[in-house]
Specification:
Layout: E1 18-21, E2 28-31, E3 37-39, H1 59-86, H2 92-110
Helix pairs in contact: 1-2
């Protein structure tokens, strides 16, 4: 359900997504329910020496990113539900939360403009 009450026409791979990790702790992917790969956030960025001026991330940071990516469909759905529930409620605090939720939904569905 979209925050405007309509059905979401998301272009992302349907969730839930999950983090899959092999026996090698440096090898992980995010998959959708059928097992198809959504993304491979285990880029070797954390696995080699950085060139001058390059930023490399740690394995811990790469795994944290993968967990966040895997939770994205549920987070989007939760924001849509929150925005729906706040529609029509009076008060600045409700408007502020709803506006933030709608901005994040827009960013997820359409990207930065």
């Amino acid at each position: 359900m979209q925050a405007n009450g309509g059905v979401s026409m998301s272009r992302h791979t349907p969730g839930p997504w999950k983090l899959e990790q092999s026996d090698d702790p440096r090898d992980f992917i995010v998959t959708e329910p059928s097992g198809r790969t959504v993304c491979e956030p285990n880029d070797p960025l954390y696995d080699c020496e950085p060139e001058e001026g390059e930023r490399r991330i740690s394995l811990e940071e790469a795994l944290a990113n993968a967990r966040l990516i895997a939770a994205a469909p549920q987070l989007l759905e939760a924001l849509q539900d929150i925005a729906c529930q706040l529609t029509g409620l009076e008060g600045r605090q409700y408007k502020w939360i709803r506006d933030r939720a709608l901005a994040a939904i827009s960013l997820a569905e359409r990207g930065a403009e």
